[in-house]
């Protein structure tokens, strides 16, 4: 870098806030291939050309780096290098520039999805090429109607056929394959009438061309495929994008752990590489990745992600630490426990599976439309054929009319109706920092009429804040001298209230008790009532600290787990939309009651275990409620997957994020209202689109059945209906 | 009308060239990072072709 002066932090165009820095060691994520090493990083906050050249320039300047390329669309950076450059230095180079960086595990599922997307895009291009060129020839046949000689027309049809046949067979493979696979099982899906229409139309048109007939449906066939492939492509792209977003959010948490070898050396390893029995070192501030049994060290752990309990728990050898807990004060050594049957994670995994199964049984609006549509179209086409034969028309003529009915009713508009709306809506949400996990999540979100919240970390910030009184500014500043040396949440709250300042020398931390230091010969202590020798007052705020200097009177600080910004507004807004509200928390009764009272929610349950949360959701389900669950902890994961729809904040545990339908980012809760409105809006649009598609068929089918559907009519009708549906989805909304 | 025997093949050939170019562009990953490509044109660095194609 040759920038003069201090290097600007973050995006030079100011399009994104400065990133959060690196998460953990990245060494475990380096892939070695021959003499070359490569690393994938997920870079946050890169938005413009300035970011691109800044990041690539700085990384390329590192010794041994052969290639550094940042993909701005998905925020992934590939770095390849030779030699002994430390991978952490690469990540640090990026974070020093003011961007967030997290090691990224190249995902194998994504490669398959990418290949599928590419092949759909190519199929679509081939269909588009064929549709455009065949249309060129068809228009001349239509406009020359009555004047064009039979030989010329036959040549035109022959050329059209020469283009359309290979193109249709190539780009229609997706539909043929899917139709064949369901037909083998004796079912039918949307691809069956599509394949039937394409194959019949092609054969009839070839026959007509050879016979020198007037009507050939080559143009309609390839155009049909083109429109259908647009729908398929959008669907595939949405699926890949939502999958990638989910994977990336998980990657932000896929931190590595420090394993201590037999010879005492430490090594950074991924969570998946930890075997039962391994000795793991957990530094203060670090999150535990696998269930551990503590073998050495005394500390405190924040288990709010695991149990919802907002008070830190004391940890001593022999205690079991669950994955998701954060070590607060002293380094700990623990032995990794295998996936024992009674482990919390395996319990939750079992419950998750049950939820997934139920969710995959959900029938989308599109599925319902198809199950009505397929038999209807087939019956209509068959009846048309029989009817015309009975009415005295020849078999050839009757077949032509039946085929034109199949083509004209073919579900272009139907196939576009849902995907276009889903793509447009998820794109709008994406820009607001909401990552949707699947297209049908929108439908389920729109149906919800009862909202269940988790408390700690979801409704509240999950970190205590000091309740200020008028006269304690001086005391806070004094206490902060000790507090700055500690990672305990209450100490951090004191520091947050005091602001920047000095830290006392030689602060000793006594887990479960408090801090102690000699300041100018006076012993100062910050901690529990017992630690400072103060008298405990019952029945007040549960979260408090005492501070004492020498023999002076102890000062008491009270804390509260504050509501997230926008929580009150959200509760109001949801009530206005007719949703029932409920809090299900693992925290103690007093804390939950307080929050419920602040939000005006009368329905709440405290001390709920993961299993009792699930039981409550089942109960609500039996009452006929469609539950929207919003939660972040490990203890919420099972209920998130079981609820009709679910949301998780960006800071949630990765299990909870993958169990939920959408993940919202940002400190406030404002996004939730927007998600629900967007989902409801999307559902209205989808229903409108299906109504438009049905309305189109009501007009088009009689025309086709009556035998008036010439290739020209079919071409106009199909493109018009597809256009209307697409425009309706793109229409700007709230 | 004789012109048609000449014009139609030319038109189709042009179309096929375009299609071929598009398929080549998709296969070589030129649609993988639309935002990055839009930004890259603004940087002063030498813009080399994509190193990997898969």
Describe this structure in words.
The complex is a heterodimer of chains A (about 725) and B (about 55). Chain A is α+β, with helices and mostly antiparallel strands and about 725 residues long. Chain A contains 24 helices and 27 strands. Chain A has 5 domains: about 25-105, Alpha-Beta Plaits, CATH 3.30.70.100; about 110-245 and about 365-420 and about 680-730, no CATH class; about 255-350, Calcium-transporting ATPase, cytoplasmic transduction domain A (Distorted Sandwich); about 430-460 and about 565-680, Rossmann fold, CATH 3.40.50.1000; about 460-560, Calcium-transporting ATPase, cytoplasmic domain N. Chain A has a 7-stranded mixed sheet, sandwiched between helices. In chain A, strands 7-6-8-14-9-12 form a 6-stranded antiparallel sheet, with no helix packed on it. Chain A has a 6-stranded antiparallel sheet with strand order 17-22-21-20-19-18. Chain A is elongated. With about 55 residues, chain B is mainly α. Chain B contains 2 helices and no strands. The N and C termini of chain B lie far apart (about 45 Å). The interface of A and B includes residues 56, 67, 74, 118 and 159 of A.
Task: Outline the fold blueprint.
The complex is a heterodimer of chains A (about 725) and B (about 55).
Chain A: E1 31-33, E2 36-44, H1 49-60, E3 65-71, E4 76-82, H2 87-96, E5 100-103, H3 108-143, H4 150-171, H5 173-184, H6 191-211, H7 218-251, E6 256-260, E7 266-270, E8 279-282, E9 292-296, E10 299-302, H8 304-307, E11 313-315, E12 320-321, E13 326-327, E14 332-336, H9 344-360, H10 365-390, H11 395-409, H12 412-431, E15 434-436, H13 440-447, E16 450-453, H14 455-459, E17 460-467, H15 473-483, H16 489-498, E18 508-510, E19 514-519, E20 522-527, H17 529-532, E21 543-549, E22 555-563, H18 567-576, E23 580-584, H19 589-599, E24 604-605, H20 610-622, E25 627-630, H21 637-642, E26 645-649, H22 654-659, E27 662-664, H23 670-705, H24 711-730
Parallel strand pairs in A: 16-23, 16-25, 23-24, 25-26, 26-27
Antiparallel strand pairs in A: 1-2, 2-4, 2-5, 3-4, 6-7, 6-8, 8-14, 9-12, 9-14, 10-11, 10-13, 15-27, 17-22, 18-19, 19-20, 20-21, 21-22
Helix pairs in contact in A: 3-4, 3-7, 4-6, 4-7, 5-6, 6-7, 6-11, 7-12, 7-24, 10-11, 10-12, 10-23, 11-23, 12-23, 12-24, 13-23, 15-16, 23-24
Chain B: H1 3-27, H2 34-40
